[in-house]
Design goal:
- Keywords: Iron, Metal-binding.
- InterPro entries: Haemerythrin_Fe_BS, Hemerythrin, Hemerythrin-like, Hemerythrin-like_sf, Hemerythrin_metal-bd.
- It comes from Paenibacillus puldeungensis.
- This is Bacteriohemerythrin.
- The protein is 82% helix and 0% strand.
- It is mostly helical and 136 residues long.
- The chain has one domain: Hemerythrin-like (Four Helix Bundle (Hemerythrin (Met), subunit A)), CATH 1.20.120.50.
Length: 136
């Protein structure tokens, strides 16, 4: 289970709220996996991720453009890559059916996203905004 903590905060309320929603869904999925029902929950989680990424990435990308975030193009590529991975995994599950392997892949994808993207990439957006406001 992943607990929201300050290290996950970007410092932008909208983005932090959306990240907290992602953590809740990840925790729901992880709990289902520990109860041996991850295969039953995988399509629901993938469906959530597809709609979540449309809304969240749109919000985050709009913010980056609004504040003229210099790393926007690279950040957008990272978002697009994540969307492609989610879509690829969903296609695989729809074609072959849910499996233990697909639940493991989804679990890894989500945990990796939280650990690497939010704490190592998204956090820079908040820092940039904070520094920009301080310079004004």
């Amino acid at each position: 289970m992943i607990i929201w903590r300050e290290a996950l905060s970007v410092g932008v309320d909208l983005i932090d709220t959306e990240h907290q929603e992602l953590i809740r869904k990840l925790n729901d999925f992880m709990e289902a996996c520990t109860k041996q029902s991850g295969k039953d929950k995988i399509l629901e989680t993938l469906s959530f991720l597809k709609s979540y990424t449309v809304e969240h990435f749109s919000d985050e990308e709009s913010l980056m453009q609004e504040v003229e975030y210099p790393d926007y193009p690279v950040h957008k590529q990272i978002h697009d890559g994540f969307v492609n991975k989610v879509e690829e995994l969903e296609r695989s599950v729809l074609e072959k059916g849910p499996s233990v392997l697909s639940t493991i892949k989804l679990n890894r994808l989500l945990v990796d996203w939280l650990i690497n993207h939010i704490t190592k990439t998204d956090v820079h957006i908040g820092e940039y905004i904070k520094n920009r406001e301080a310079a004004s």
